[in-house]
Amino acid sequence: MVDSKTIIDGLAEIVGRKFVKTTPEVIAEYAVDNMTPMAVLSPKNTQQVSEIVKFANLENLAIVPRGSGSKMSLGNPPKRLDLVVCTTRMNHMLDVDTANLTITVEAGVKFRDVQARLATEDDRCYLPLEDLVTEGDEFICSDRSHSGCFLPIDPPCSEKATMGGIVAANSSGPRRLLYNLPRDFILGVRFVAPNGEIVGAGGKTVKNVSGYDISKLMIGSIGTLGIICEMTFKLLPLPEQMATLLFSFGTFSAACDFADHIFETSLLPAAVEVMNATAFANLKMNATPDFATDGYVVAVALETFEEAVKRMVKEIREMARDCGAQSDASLQNQLHLQFWLAVSSLDPNLAARFAGLIKAKLNYRISEWKDIFEFAENTLFQGKLEHAISAHAGCGICTISLLMGQGGNGSVDQAIEVMGQLLKRSREAGGNLVIQYAPADMKKRLSIWGELPPDFAVVKRVKEQVDPSGIMSPGRFVGGL
Ligand SMILES: Cc1cc2nc3c(=O)[nH]c(=O)nc-3n(C[C@H](O)[C@H](O)[C@H](O)COP(=O)(O)OP(=O)(O)OC[C@H]3O[C@@H](n4cnc5c(N)ncnc54)[C@H](O)[C@@H]3O)c2cc1C
Fold first, then answer.
1. 241-344 shares the fold of 4-86
2. Distance of CA 159 from the midpoint of ligand 1 (Å)
3. Which fold has domain 241-344?
4. Which site from 146, 266, 283, 365 is most exposed, i.e. has the minimal number of CB atoms within 10 Å?
5. Residue 52 Cα, ligand 1 centroid: separation in angstroms?
6. Arithmetic mean of pLDDT, 340-364
7. Fold of 4-86
């Protein structure tokens, strides 16, 4: 085994000494589940990523890629870790082709900068630009394509997340109800495979692959099948009108009857989010609407033509009144964007407040959402576990955050027990439960990826074939792959 000095020198040859971090206090910040790498590398382009991976193969070094690091907690603790490869210097927009409604960006480009780049001349954008917070010497992309397009994905941490991290984690939020997932907007990917080869899959046109659609394989692979370096997405024109209606209900059953009423109509909301008072209370909005609840909130996002929004506002309000809504608020355009930015920032806010935060994502048959939500609430109350719960109604997705540790309460044993019960119940409803976030020392007691998928044998073969030396994020994925 070559000594670490030789390894560091070899890596510095590739990216330059300045972009190889080894000082203990710095690399500690890049630890993955309390495992600290030997070095943190910041390559400037795909070619350098390829050389790093080839070098790592030669020296049998384990790599974990990283974007902004907001979701490094997703997955099992790595079996071993030598290098963290950071994509933040790979932050160029390679092709903005709004005539063909496509954009090609490097993995380190931030989601917020993509939306800013696509904003109109008068800064109409899919994110509230003036509310976005930057860190250090960061700045929001000021270049405008004046196109009035947007990238219709709705990831949590939308202020910080990189495109590579969003795609690698297949991150999505409440507005997947209308727009679906990152996988539905990706046209092509360029990535470095575990053997260091640069692979291009897909392209700028919708149907551009004959054979296996490898670009889709990379989505949600959290760095286990290679390092995503460039991506091409398809875009949509910015909605003419955007608004959100907030309704407060005293009971969960009233809130979900109302949500179900919406789905019995031909109306097309962008999101129907049902959250408990704790989740709503933890939303940080600059301009808090005159609206409060001690029960449940249903937030309905409407993003389409002005006439259609007007009609939906009128009809949905009537439905809410008939279902016993106690209060309501209407958030137009900027306030609408600020509200969903606050929703996307809920996770990092809770993670900052509760050191022992455990966050789970449950999926299930859409028709069972009420039973699952109610089962979860009752089980958490019986377990005396303080929690924020939110359902993407109409999507078969519910997220639960246990507000544990400093600032929160509840026993770890109880939390582990309850997560087991919720996993069992999700399985019965045809779904699964994945732990999205948890303290590293608790992970070995949690079933991070829930039940093994029925196609696990093929998933395992793919990983073993693509990464025979097991250097890419070893152990982090389903079944400890
Ligand atoms: C407490 C908390 C809970 C969250 N829960 C959810 C959730 O339930 N659902 C959700 O969709 N989002 C969730 N997120 C948001 C998520 O962090 C972001 O939306 C996004 O997925 C992460 O972007 P990032 O750049 O920070 O990625 P990082 O955190 O840096 O990386 C995310 C994952 O992708 C891998 N990766 C990063 N870049 C690359 C690349 N170029 N090639 C290959 N692999 C790469 C990393 O190894 C890591 O496994 C949560 C965030 C927080 C803080």
1. no
2. 12
3. Alpha-Beta Plaits (3.30.70)
4. 266
5. 22
6. 94
7. 3.30.43
The predicted structure's pLDDT at residue 406: 58
pLDDT at 1: 60
Q: In the structure, which protein residues have their CB atom closer than 6 angstroms to any atom of ligand 1?
A: 64-72, 74-75, 87, 107, 155-157, 160-162, 164-166, 168-169, 171-172, 222-223, 227-228, 347-348, 351, 359, 361, 399, 436-437, 473
Phi, psi of 437, rounded to the nearest 5 degrees: -160, 130
The model carries a pTM of 0.94
Is the confidence at residue 206, as pLDDT, over 60? no
Residue 288's pLDDT is 65
Domain edges within the chain: 4-86, 93-237, 241-344, 347-443
Q: What is the mean pLDDT of residues 10-19?
A: 98
Contact between residue 256 and residue 373 where contact means Cβ atoms under 8 Å apart: yes
Greater pLDDT, 208 or 32: 32
CATH fold of 93-237? 3.30.465
Q: Residue of the nearest CA to atom 4 in ligand 1?
A: 347
Measured CA to CA, the distance from residue 395 to residue 330 in angstroms comes to 23
**Mean pLDDT within 99-121:** 94
Atom of ligand 1 nearest to the CA of 348: 53
Q: How far is the CA of 320 from the centre of ligand 1 (A)?
A: 35
Q: How far is the CA of 167 from the centre of ligand 1 (A)?
A: 8
* Ligand 1 atom nearest to 227, measured from its CA: 42
Phi, psi for residue 398 in degrees, rounded to 5: -140, 135
The average pLDDT across 460-471 equals 97
Q: What is the CA radius of gyration of the chain?
A: 22
Atom number, ligand 1, closest to the C-alpha of residue 170: 11
pLDDT at position 17 over 90: yes
Report in angstroms the alpha-carbon separations of 103 from 106, 129, 147, 341, 480: 10, 19, 12, 22, 35
CA of 99 from ligand 1 middle (Å) equals 30
CA angle (399, 401, 407) in 5-degree steps: 165
pLDDT, one tens digit per residue, over 190-201 is: 999 999 999 998
**Cα gap 398→442, rounded to integer Å:** 22
Distance 69 CA to ligand 1 centre (A): 7
Question: From ligand 1's centre to the CA of 166, what distance in Å?
Answer: 6
For 86-94, what is the mean pLDDT?
A: 96
Per-residue pLDDT, 209: 57
Can you tell me whether residue 177 is helix, strand or coil? helix
Mutate to test the pocket of ligand 1, among 48, 49, 70, 432 (most ligand atoms within 8 A of CB): 70
- At the topology level, CATH places domain 347-443 in Alpha-Beta Plaits (3.30.70)
